[in-house]
Amino acid sequence: MSNKVRHLNNDYEKLKIYRHQKILRTRKKRALILVSIFLVVILVLIYQIIATKNESSSVENKANNMQVVLQNNKENNKKLKQNVKQLYNNDYLEKLIRQKYYYSKPGETVYGLPGDVSKDVIQN
Length: 124
Known about the structure:
Shape: rod-shaped
Number of helices: 3
Order of helices and strands: HHH
Strand content: under 5%
Number of domains: 1
Low-confidence stretches: none
Distance between the termini: 116 Å
């Protein structure tokens, strides 16, 4: 039966086929544009996710480093507070002044040895 059907080869049929092909080309272009836009949006989102993850990792590393610095500063602060408490002790203060600045008690003689130099004297 299908052998008996023939297509006419006139201008109307040619125009109909041309319009159908034009519609198909237009649909393909639209589909290509939509897929391209979709891919661009997906790529931008993936880039944002990766950038955010890297930034989060960087911030986490900085936070860990700051925790270590904070811990060191707390320990240093504790030592300094202990030193301040010791400065209220007259015996410690006297010992510190005698050692650091070579002060002596009345009637006492201080002898300096070649390897015995105060750190404060060297710094100035």
